[in-house]
From TrEMBL:
InterPro entries: ABC-4/HrtB_transporter, ABC3_permease_C
A GO cellular component entry from the record: plasma membrane
Biological source species: Nitrosococcus oceani C-27
Membrane-spanning parts: 12-30, 36-56, 77-100
Compartment(s) where it occurs, according to its Swiss-Prot or TrEMBL record: Cell membrane
Residues covered by the ABC3 transporter permease C-terminal domain: 2-101
Lineage of origin: Bacteria, Pseudomonadati, Pseudomonadota, Gammaproteobacteria, Chromatiales
Protein name as catalogued: ABC3 transporter permease C-terminal domain-containing protein
Amino acid sequence: MLLSSMSARRREIAIMRAIGASPSFIFLIIQVEALLISIAGIIIALVAISMGVLFSQTYLAENYGIVINYFSMNSQMLIIVSVVLFSTFLLAMIPAISAYRMALHDSLGMMTT
């Protein structure tokens, strides 16, 4: 998703480069954006899981005899979240490096409409 939006954001990146943004700054903002999207997804998922367990706990116990303990963060969950964030960082390097290497004159040449 981030890679496909990069082609749409070429103009924005070119303008930032033209006003003096360094390639490392462009790399950094793309990484931060990817990590923020990932963190938002993790928070939404954890809230959804917690609410799902909370609301279905009594129904499942009464009707099917399945007892589910309340969801809580444990060391395994922290490892999974860490792996997801690390994977996000690694995979976001593809569009970030692409933007980092993007030639300024090529991007500005595309701006003529």
